[in-house]
Amino acid sequence: MKSGRYGAALRLAGSFAAASMFLAGSALAEGTGKNGVFTIHNDTESNTVVGFYTNDGSGWSTNWLSRRLAPGATTKMEFSKPGGKCKQTLRVGWLGKQGGEVKDDPINIDICDASNVYLHDNDTSYD
Fold first, then answer.
1. Residue 104 burial by CB count (10 A; 0-12/13-18/19+): exposed, middle or buried?
2. What single DSSP character describes residue 118?
3. Do 50 and 42 contact (CB within 8 A), yes or no?
């Protein structure tokens, strides 16, 4: 398993910016970043994910999430365009204490190596 701090930068989308997301329950289909499919896991006890953004060097995507991702929840993600770059940057937005969105620092990732991206309180990991 590879991991990084939220202050690092996780590389995920850009040429894939027009991504589609599918919410799934506890029985998620296995995916692989090589095929443009992966799952994000909110592995926090009390923080809600409200934003998920990607960048392959050509600029930040719009928010992939159409709904909030509660603590303990998972969401299957899929890039809408095949053949994109493996090296991506990810940025997560969390629900702030006063509402609104608080964005973490970008994090680097090789999405071709990731089937699951785990969002923790103070770091992110993937396998």
1. buried
2. E
3. no
Q: Which segments of the chain have a pLDDT < 50?
A: 1-31
pLDDT tens for residues 67-97? 999 999 999 998 776 667 788 899 999 999 9
How far, in Å, CA of 92 to CA of 52, rounded?
Answer: 5
**DSSP-assigned beta bridge partners for residue 17:** none
The DSSP H or E segment spanning 102 is strand 101-103
Q: What is the predicted pLDDT for the residue at 32?
A: 55
For 2-126, CATH number out of 3.30.360.10, 2.60.40.10, 3.30.499.10, 2.60.40.420 equals 2.60.40.10
- pTM metric for this prediction: 0.72
